[in-house]
What we know:
Residues 42-103 are annotated as: Disordered. By secondary structure, this protein is mainly alpha-helical.
Amino acid sequence: MNQFEVFVASSESARSDAWRYIRRLRELDSRIEEEMHRLREIAGTLASSSGTGPTKERRSEDDSPHSGGKRGRAPSGRMARVAPASGDAEAGDGAPSDTSVVSLEPSNAQLLVESRTRRHRVLRYALERVNVAEELKASGNEVGELLAVHMAQLRRTLHGTGLSSPRSSS
């Protein structure tokens, strides 16, 4: 077996790992892009529906445009929406808490839940992508080290035969 064949045989697992990591990175990139596309659609839908929702006049039980309170305030004893639990106004990622979803229209509540689920998936995919990229880098370093060892052996072999490689001076 010549030196090149030895290198190819000895580095096969590291090279296949690198290809596997590259394929996984592409797959994760694709999944992240799909989830982000859907998140953009959801955001657009929620923005368009929330743009029409608050502008509508609320009507009280007697079908008057006022809610029964003085100067347009909500009447005491009735709440326009469920108040979030203390310290839970935001779920840490900028999304309203689950308690506020209860007061929304069912379609908007469903979109908010889907949005949270998809954001969680994007975060999970992004973290996995970072780990795979680190593994790819380590695999690349391993292949580089194997190549350096075999190149040194090849140079010694060529130097011993009296032949010199064109790049041995660099």
